[in-house]
Specification:
12 helices; 8 strands; alpha+beta; disordered N terminus; 342 residues; four-stranded antiparallel sheet
Length: 342
Amino acid sequence: MSSELIEIPLAEAIEASPTAPASFADNRWKTRWILLGVLMFSLLHVLPAIDRRHLQGVPPVLLLILGILIPQSFFLIFPLLTRDRNRRAPLKMPAFESVMIEFAIAIPIVIGIITTMLIVGYLLTRFAPGVSVTPDALRDLAASTDASRVYIFALAAFTVPPLCEEVFFRGFLYNALKARWPWLLACVVESLIFGFGHTFGIVHGAFASVLGLILTLVYQWRKSLLTPMFVHCGNNLFAALGIVALMFLTAHSPVLGIVTDPQQSACVVQQVTAGTGAESADLMPGDVVIKMDKASIVSAAQLKQMLLQYKAGDIVRLTIRRDGVEIIKSVELQKRSDPPPE
């Protein structure tokens, strides 16, 4: 009796087998979609690197749409639309029991990550004072006099990215690479793309890559996107609460009312906050701060450190370079919590 090999679509095979639940790992993507997805991910993460002078006056809601909602929507929709039609597995909502199990498993993992981050942060303050786990961009956000920006970012950070980025990186990119490479190589490459795609500098990129590696290993272990989603959410929630707490702790700290770029070698004004002493003193984006009172300023980090010696209400003399000309400006320092004048 002869036997005949019959090929059936993957979706039908999964539906016919109750022991093989459908998941992202059951799908396939063509190579062109992998390359396009990585390219689009790179392009959509350009916004944080844009010169902040171009973002001055942009409403927080519009920044949320441009910087978070549009990129994250792509991360969620792209993997679903580009699945190979001949190898497309049906995706179903997980059972409530499965959700609770993965949530319970994620809790100790989140606690472990947070504990490790706190230890690393403490060690950095002791042995590498100039290096911080918290990106300078997020410190600047916490220092903003506009609390709505902080609240909007904090809320969006632990709700949207954990869902959308896990679908893109673990569900799509890792599974697509694993179908072509050994799983460990796919894990490392995908984690590096995830980490250094976050444009908060090299240090944060390295930490984000380690987090991506943990999330991918958790996914490889549990075979469910739920677990890395919960872990990602817990990590981002901790970071969001930290930024909100930093905003309150520094509410009475003195501020000039300028935003600088810590990546530049000079202290260049990127943005002037409305209603602050810097605006009253007519500071402008592009000004380079070279002195505060009699002390020379060579970097944004040094300026921030020197501000700790003052208190709100003090008037400082800033020497700035504008279009090659040195100008002296008197700026009154404000409390971070002071609202802009009507």
